[in-house]
Design brief:
Elements: H1 3-9, H2 18-27, E1 29-33, E2 38-40, E3 48-54, E4 57-63, E5 66-73, E6 78-79, H3 81-85, E7 93-96, E8 100-106, H4 107-116, H5 118-140, H6 146-161, E9 163-164, E10 169-172, H7 176-183, H8 187-199, E11 203-206, E12 211-214, H9 217-224
Antiparallel strand pairs: 1-8, 2-7, 3-6, 3-8, 4-5, 4-7, 9-10, 10-12, 11-12
Helix pairs in contact: 4-5, 6-7, 6-9, 7-8
């Protein structure tokens, strides 16, 4: 991957020095995983940061025999940074939702880059604060109607990772249970809401290609903003 493409793909690196990017690319390791394959396991020690080149992954926490999805990440995002920053075992695991291409950078080298490049260090802090803000928004919406919460999550996924379309964006056809966990609603509610959105012509689901087209993003955004 070229330095410019690397910088454009990952917002974390769009203010980093070219020398930093060149060095990080030289030490990065490529990984390919099929769908439903575990990428990182809970309680393992953090030894690298991972960057999503293509595909979708879910971050989840295990609770006994069950697992709860905490976040869904796509192209251009990263994970694994918390375990290396606080030098503790990972508190979550990561599973590929689709075929996924990743780059990994070892903990030692990533920390070196943060110390050497103040712009990268600052950008890292900005993105971590952004994640905290997103978590706070989800907390504030906990009493909102299920349709509003699901619409908000779909719009956010489209904004962060969606492929642009004429009237909206295309995302991965994420399983109902994972959508439900992240939106903090039930799987049954999720299925009924998605079916309603399809019937209204706001969403199209292609189970063959495993895609969900948010073809009326304007209306979904309006629905997501109906805070009561």
């Amino acid at each position: 991957m070229e330095i410019q493409a690397f910088s454009e793909l990952f917002p974390l690196f769009n203010t980093a020095n070219p020398e930093t990017l060149e060095w990080l690319l030289s030490v990065a390791v490529e990984h390919d995983y099929p769908g439903n394959r575990a990428v990182l396991m809970e309680d393992s020690w953090g030894n690298a940061v991972y960057f999503v080149v293509s595909g979708w992954v879910k971050v989840r926490r295990l609770s006994g025999e069950s697992a709860v999805t905490l976040a869904i990440l796509g192209r251009g995002d990263f994970f694994g940074e918390m375990a290396i920053l606080d030098e503790s075992p990972r508190s979550t695991d990561v599973v590929a939702l689709s075929k996924v291409e990743l780059l990994s950078i070892s903990a030692q080298r990533f920390i070196q880059a943060l110390f050497k490049d103040s712009q990268l260090h600052h950008r890292m802090l900005q993105l971590m604060v952004q994640r905290l803000r997103q978590a706070n928004i989800r907390f504030q919406m906990r009493h909102q109607p299920p349709a509003v919460k699901l619409a908000k999550m779909l719009v956010t996924l489209a904004e962060l990772y969606g492929q642009p379309m004429d009237k909206g964006a295309e995302i991965f056809n994420i399983p109902y249970q994972d959508l439900a966990d992240v939106a903090d609603i039930t799987a049954d509610e999720t299925q009924k809401i998605v079916e309603k959105l399809v019937s209204k012509g706001w969403v199209e689901v292609d189970t063959t290609q495993q895609t969900m087209a948010l073809i009326n993003l304007k209306q979904l955004t309006h629905l997501a903003g109906r805070v009561q």
